[in-house]
Amino acid sequence: MTLACGQALACDCPRVKEENWLPGVKKNINRTEFIFLGEVIRSNEKTFTLKVIDAFKGDIKADSILTGDSQRSGCLIIPNEGFWIIYANSVEGKLIEISLCGISRELTGLTTSTPPLVLEKASNASIDYEEYQNLHQITLVKNWVNEYALLTAYRNRQQKKVQPVSSKDYLAYLAIGLSAMAIVLSVVSMRRR
Question: Where, by residue number, does the polypeptide cross the bilayer (predicted)?
Fold first, then answer.
């Protein structure tokens, strides 16, 4: 008989409900030092490197290169390569840590992710999984659009304390909003086919 011992780590994280996403976003804004849209350019089992695309909170700028690791705790995310919305804290001023209990997530396959099937209907009712998946995809896109608007508003409130927002910024936000709406409309039209 062989007996092996090791350290076991478990994370007890309350899940943010997709149907009521914005309160979870607000909590995570208050709990993290950095919030940004980033591209993970390198990732392995313990470390990652990413490039900041758009910063919402913290003393970071677009095009900054950041590194992180998961060696201090088992409740940290090592993101895959792709585009992510990151809610993170710094460690000793050099590395960032992304908590497994936060809402950081990959955006690359946002509309192709498989939804968790929650069986809330009566046992004798049938569930149309394709319709359920389409509704889930619409919810994910809607949540991301709302989250992006909330994060942009947060950043703008912080910047107003430092500098006024120019009319060019409003045009950029309008373009982003129209692009997001086009995504939602395309998902809805795919659902109707």
Answer: 170-188
